[in-house]
Amino acid sequence: MSNPRHYLEFERPIADLESQIEDLSTLSDAAEADGANGYEAEAASLRERATALRAEIYEGLDAWQKTQVSRHPDRPHFVDYLGALIEDFEELKGDRVFGDDQAIIGGTGRFRGRPVVVLGHEKGHDTQTRIKHNFGMSRPEGYRKAVRLMDLAERFNLPVLSFVDTAGAYPGKEGEERGQGEAVARSTERCLTLGVPMIATITGEGGSGGAIAIAAGNKVLILEHSIYSVIAPESGSSILYRDRAQAPLMARAMKITAKDLLGFGIVDAIVREPVGGAHADRAAAMTAVGDAVEAELKGLSGMSPDQLRKQRAERFYAIGGKHP
Question: What distance in Å separates the CA atoms of residue 154 and residue 137, rounded to the nearest whole number?
C-alpha cells in the first residue's frame, strides 16, 4: 500500500507514525551499511500499529470526515479511471453549439472487451490541470457534449458508463448566459430516456444538479467514502446558519454518506474502498469499481430499450418512499 502524499487533519496520528517509520528505515539503512544491526524490527512494529490505527480511524469516520476524504487530492480522478479501465479510448470533443468543456471528458472505448461510451467529470491534479478542467465544474457546453455522447451511444447501441466527481455545475456569469439550467436539465432528461444501459459511479464528490446531470442511470454506484448531496455542506451552512464553520453539522444533517444514501434508495450499491480510502491504494480502488460496474452491466444485459427506460423510471420514482 502506498502512503498518501497529503494527510487530512484526522489522519495526523497516522502521519506521525509513518514519519517515525521513515526515520527508522533511514537509520536502519545507515546501520546496515556500517555492518550494525538495523531497526527493521522496530519499524515493522510501527507499521502494524499504523495499519491498525488507519483501519480504526476509517471505520469510524463521520459525515464531515467522509466529505473531506471524497475531496482528497490524491483520490483517483476520471483520467485515472480511463487509464485503468478503458482500452482504446477515443475522446470526442465539443457540443456542436459553442465549444468544448474539459470539465467533462467523454468518448468511446472498450471496458473489459466491451465497446462503451464513457464520460465523467475531471477535476485535475495540479494547478495547471485544475484550471484546464475548471475544477470539474462544467459549463453548459459540457452537459451538451454529454447529451451528444449519449445520443451516439443510443444510435450504436452502446452502454453508457459515467463517473461523477464535481462540486456542482459552474455557477459563473457566462454559464448562466449560455443556459446552464437548461443544459443540466436536458442532460438529466437524456439519461432518463436512454434506450441503452447506463451505469453511473460517484467516485468522489457528487454535488447538486451538476452531478445528477450525468448520474440518472439504471444503476448508481458510490464509493464507500464518497458523498452525494443537493448542496455542499459549506454552502448549506452559509444559507441556514450564516456560518460556513457549521459545515460539519450540516454534513451530518444532510445524510450524504454512502450508507445513508443506500438506505434511502438514492444509490444502488456501495463499492468498498481500501483501508485508508481510495487514495491509499488507487489501483485496488479502481479495480473494485471496475468489478462493480461489470457486475451491474451483466445484470442489465438482455433488457430491451423499453425495459431499460421503465426500470430507470421506476428506480427514480421510488426515491423518497424508502426509509433506512
Answer: 26
